[in-house]
């Protein structure tokens, strides 16, 4: 039996897509390239798969028997070497389809005979029983949720000729990526990326990546010290009258509290205050006037 490692688990709640049934089992996902002629496209496919969390790649009779080890393949994979190492090369499509339940051909234009041609997102919503994921697409068929397949394969033909009719006829659906009708030709790697993205999103997606480190907030002592520093600087430049301060400093305190400054930002603001005070001294010396009265400055944290 085939060994599937590209498991994809649905379950993330989407604001506009509802929730996939929690009882739905992991979906085994395989990408199959048929008669690929350019080594770079194999590497690009591996990269596209890895970015979407898939790693089951099968090549059917590629032009180069050693395509997985060719320099161009490795370069275009851009680090997705685990996908290349896990990939298999087989002679026939039958071998590539071993263990797969649901077959998706890819086609730029509809054929007169064969499986129905569908947009990827619409078909994936039907397949997973999640009509809420559709926006302007209408369900054409209804798939019994009790009969959902547990594995899926996406088939891509050669760069020059696409998929042969007899291979398309074996599939349950022909996926057609919506493109400009005047220019619908896609590079193989780009087509794999689009299908992989739509499938991953249908399964729940990854969501935005969190920050590597949660931002740190400056403590109250650091904020208080910075405000005292600014108060002295504002007095030096004549912006704040110490005899009639009114509510300037309390208002600045509230502004800083709303800003939720980090320690690094506190250091920047203290540097600005220091520059203001130095400028006031330089200006007084240049004009031959009286130097600003020294103000108590808190030590830097």
Distance between the termini: 66 Å
Secondary structure: number of strands: 8
Q: What composes the largest sheet?
A: 8 strands, mixed
Helix count equals: 10
Q: What is the overall silhouette?
A: elongated
CATH hierarchy, class of the largest domain: Alpha Beta
Percent of residues in β-strands? 5-15%
Based on the structure given, which CATH architecture of the largest domain is correct?
A: 3-Layer(aba) Sandwich
User: How would you classify the helix and strand content by structural class?
Assistant: alpha/beta
SSE pattern, N- to C-terminal? EEHEHHEHEEHEHEHHHH
Under CATH, the homologous superfamily of the largest domain reads SPOUT methyltransferase, trefoil knot domain
Report on the structure:
With 301 residues, this protein is an alpha/beta fold. It folds into 2 domains: 7-202, Alpha/beta knot; 220-287, Helicase, Ruva Protein, domain 3 (Orthogonal Bundle). 37% of the residues lie in helices and 11% in strands. The chain contains 10 helices and 8 strands. It has helices at residues 39-51, 71-77, 81-86, 93-96, 120-127, 165-168, 188-202, 220-236, 248-259, 263-287, and strands spanning 7-8, 27-34, 57-60, 88-90, 102-106, 117-118, 151-156, 173-175. Strands 1, 2, 3, 4, 5, 6, 7 and 8 form an 8-stranded mixed β-sheet that branches. α1 links the parallel β2 (27-34) and β3 (57-60). α1 packs parallel to α7 (188-202), α8 (220-236) packs across α9 and α8 runs parallel beside α10 (263-287). The chain starts with 6 loop residues before the first strand and ends in a 14-residue tail after the last helix. The model is unreliable at 1-7, 9-24 and 133-142 (pLDDT under 50).
